[in-house]
Give the backbone structure.
Amino acid sequence: MGYNCVVCVKQVPDTKKITGEAMKEDGTVNRAALPAVFNPEDLNALEAAMAVRDQYGGTVTVVTMGLPAACAVLRESLFRGADRAVLITDRRAAASDTLATSYILSCAVKKLGADLVFCGRQAIDGDTAQVGPQLAEKLGYHLVTYMEEFLGCRERTIRLKRNVGNGWEVVSCPMPALVTVMESANTPRPQAAKRLMKYKKALSKAEVQAKAEHILEGDFENYTAELKAAEVEKHCAKLAGRGLLVEQWNLDELGADLAWCGMSGSPTKVHRIQSVVLTGGEYKEFPPNDEGIARLIGELIEEHTIG
Amino acid sequence: MIEVNRKGEVWIFAEQEDGKLSDVPLELMSKGQELACTLGVPLAAVLLGRNVAPLASKLIAHGADKVYLVEDDRLGHYQARGYCHLICRLIEQYKPQVCLYGATPIGRDLAPTVASAMKCGLTADCTDLQIGGHGDPVTKVEHKNLLFQIRPAFGGNIIATIVNPSRWPQMATVREGVMHMPAADASRKGEIIRVKADLDGVTLPLTIEESHRREKKVNLKAARIIVAGGAGVGSRENFRPLWDLANALGGAVGGSRAAVDLGFIDHDHQVGQTGTTVRPALYIAVGISGAVQHRAGMQEAAKILAINNDPDAPIFSIAHFGIVGDLNVVVPKIIKAVRGGVKIESLAEKCK
Ligand SMILES: Cc1cc2nc3c(=O)[nH]c(=O)nc-3n(C[C@H](O)[C@H](O)[C@H](O)COP(=O)(O)OP(=O)(O)OC[C@H]3O[C@@H](n4cnc5c(N)ncnc54)[C@H](O)[C@@H]3O)c2cc1C
C-alpha cells in the first residue's frame, strides 16, 4: 500500500526583496543581488505530499527544472523529509514558457510514475498559476486546484477542501490526480537537523562539474578533458554510494521530444520589453504636521474629492 | 493548436456560476469589441452551463455579436475536464483567433487546461491588450495584426509585450477591473448559436460533497475612496487606523501584495496586476512603494495621495498630493482632521 507522490518545485528570486541593490540602473532586476528562494507555496505542496506519505505510506519525490543552482531547493526538500530528489537541467530547456515547462515536467512524472502530483498554486515570480493545470492536462491526471485542506485518502480516492475565491467546497477525486496547494493548506515542517547534517553534502552531477576545481584533489588545471570527466564520474560515484548524489536528468534521458521544449516548444514570444520612465516630481507636497494636513484636507474638500 | 486564421473571431469565455455572470467577461466586452473592430471580425461570447440561456441576451447587450451557447446538466458545476473538452471542440470547429478569459479562480483553472490541450500560448494577468505587428528576429517573418498581450514583467519597472505568432488561438487572462464594463444596450442584436454538449466518453472526476459561497468581503471597484496600505504599515494591527480613516471618509481599504503576503489584510483587498484594478476618486497609498505591478492597478485613480517616509519612493511620481513622513504620525492626524472637519472658510479667508 501507500502512494507515490511527486512534488514539482521551483527556485524563484525573492520578489519581496526587489529594492536597492536588487535593481540595476536601467530599472531591470539584478538577479545576482536577489536571493533565490524556495517558492513559498511549493513548500506547502511538499508538506502535503509528506503528510500523505506519513499517514498512508509511499514515497515523496521532488522534481525541479532549472539551472544546476536550482539543486538548492532539492537539498532543502531533502532536509525537510523528501525521499528522493531529481534535477532536470538542460540548456535546450532554456526559454521554456509555461507550456514547454509543463511538457518537460510531464515527461519526468511519467518516468517516475505517480499516484498523486502536488504543485504550489503559483510561483511568486509570475503569479501565473499555469504550470499545475497544464501539467495535469499533459499527464491526463484529474486536476484539483486551490487545495486549502487535505481531508484524506481512501483507496484510490482523495478528499480535500478547495478555496474557490468566493467560497469553498469539499471534493473527492479519483487518482491519479494533480493537486495545486495554497499557502493556507498547512504549515511546512522545518528542516530536520539530522537530515540537514546528512544532505547538506548532497550534490547533482552538474554541481560536481561546476565545483570540480574546488572539490577534486590534485592539480586540476593540468587535467585533460577525459581525465576531468573521469574524476567527476568518480566523485559522483562516491556521492552515490553514500546516498548523496541528487539524480539529474537531461531532455534525452527524459525521452522528451525537443520540438516541445525550450524556445521551439514555447508558443509565446517576447515582442518587446519597455522600461517605464517615471517622470516624477509633479505632486503637491504637504508637510507632515497638523497645519499641513489641515491644508491638504481643506483642498480635497474644496475640490469635492472628499466630503 | 489551430492554424493562423485571419477571419477568426474574438472570443470571450462567459464565466458564470449558478446562472450569474461574473463581472470580468462583461468588462472584457469593451476591449473585445475594440480588438474585434480592429481585426474586422465579430466578437463572440462562449457560454457554458446548466439553464444559462437567459444570460445570452445580457452578453449581447454588453457587446457580443454572437453567443455560442452550450447547455447541459453536467455543466452545472464547473469542472476543468468537461469545460475544457467542449471549449476545445468549439475552437477546432470555429477557429477563433483570440480567446480571452477572466483571471478568476475558474478562469485560472480553465485557461491553462485549454492552452495545454490546444498546445497554444497563454499570457496571464494582462493589464492591456492591443493589436500590432511583430517581426520575428530569427526568421525575419513579419506577422501582422497579432494580439499584444501586455503585462508588467517580473522585476523592476518593465512592461513586457508577449505575442503568439503561429500556434493559435492567442489566449490571455485579465483580472477584475482592468477593463471598463460597457453600458448595457438592450436594443443590440446578436446571434445565438446553440451547440450540443457532446460529453460522450468524458468522465467528470470531481464529486462535490459540499459547496459554500460567501459574498466578497469588499467591493473595491465600487469604492469612491480607497485607503490602501503596504508593507510599510508593519502589521495587521497597524492597519486599524487605515480602516478608521476609510470609515471616516466613507471609503474602502485596499492593500499591496506585500501587505497581503505578510498577512496584514486578505487577498480580496489586493490592488494591482494580480489583484483588482481600481479607479476611485481618491486613492490614498500609505506605506506603499509603488512597484509597477501595484501602479498597474491604481494609476488611473482621479487623485492619488501618497504617504511615505522615503521621498524617493516611486509612488510619488504618480501622486497628485504627497506627504513625506512617518505614516504612524500622519494617518492619525488625517483622521483627526477629517473627523474634526477642517474649516474651509477660514482657509479661504487666508487665501485672499
Ligand atoms: C508577478 C507579480 C505580481 C505582482 N502583483 C502585485 C499586485 O497585484 N499588487 C501589488 O501591490 N504588488 C504586486 N506585486 C509585488 C510588487 O512587485 C511589490 O513587491 C509590492 O507592490 C510591494 O509592496 P509595498 O509597496 O507594500 O512594499 P515595499 O515595496 O516594501 O514598500 C514599503 C514602503 O513603505 C514605506 N514605509 C516603511 N515604513 C514607513 C513608515 N513608517 N511611514 C511611511 N512609509 C513607510 C517604505 O518607504 C516603502 O516605500 C507583484 C509582483 C510580482 C512579481
Notes: Residues A 15, 18, 125-127; B 154, 230-232, 256-259, 270-275, 287-289, 291, 293-294, 297, 308-310, 313, 326-328 surround flavin-adenine dinucleotide (CB under 6 Å). Chain B has a mean pLDDT of 94. The longest helix of chain B spans residues 23-39.
